[in-house]
Amino acid sequence: MPVNERFLWAVHLLDVKPNDSILEIGCGVGILVELLAGQAVGNIVAIDQSEKMIRAAEKRNRQYIESGKVELLPVELAKFSSQKRFSKIVAFNVNAFRKRPATEFGLVSNFLKEDGVFYLFYQLPYEADKETIYEWKAIATMNGFAVRNVFSKKMKPTSVNCLVLSPKR
């Protein structure tokens, strides 16, 4: 089965390095985890609030779990706890960053390494206009993040947008 273009684009933007540690928030069935784990990445922790999604992700990523490269946890971000700090955190279509962003952005900031980067992706059921992207940037800025870059790519059914963010420390 072919991989959705949005995941391939996300892997390209993340530009993983051999020593990167990655946290994926809302991993679903683990497609992005599988693509990232197939590269020379340090380790990946992926969380999703749905146990059903985590079970599917475990099935898809069994070899990476067994090798110790991937850890999958059935937990929402607000209840996630880790002593690890990550060089990159990625979230794809996680609405919590728009609904209750102060809590979510604060947690992301706590889990990032000093020079860590947060990749916030959205593919809405409609085309995001400049005003929508401006609102996302404002939300991130109001919640302690600096916008390093904004990427958009036309895809089907709609474009995918990515805010590349760093905590203001």
Put simply, the count of helices is 7
Helix amount? 25-40%
The first-to-last residue Cα distance is 43 Å
C-alpha-based Rg, rounded: 15 Å
Form type: globular
Residue share in β-strands: 25-35%
State the secondary-structure class: alpha/beta
Sketch the major β-sheet: 7 strands, mixed
Mean pLDDT: 92
Low-confidence stretches: none
Give the strand line-up of the largest sheet: 3-2-1-4-5-7-6
Q: What is the string of helix and strand elements? A: HEHEHHEEHHEHEE
The counted number of beta strands is: 7
What does this structure look like?
β1 (21-25), α2 and β2 form a beta-alpha-beta unit. The chain has a seven-stranded mixed sheet with strand order 3-2-1-4-5-7-6, with helices on both faces. It has seven helices and seven strands; from the N terminus they run αβαβααββααβαββ. It has 169 residues and is an alpha/beta fold.
What's the arrangement of secondary structure elements?
Layout: H1 5-14, E1 21-25, H2 31-37, E2 43-48, H3 51-60, H4 62-66, E3 70-74, E4 86-92, H5 96-99, H6 101-111, E5 112-122, H7 130-142, E6 145-153, E7 160-167
Helix pairs in contact: 1-2
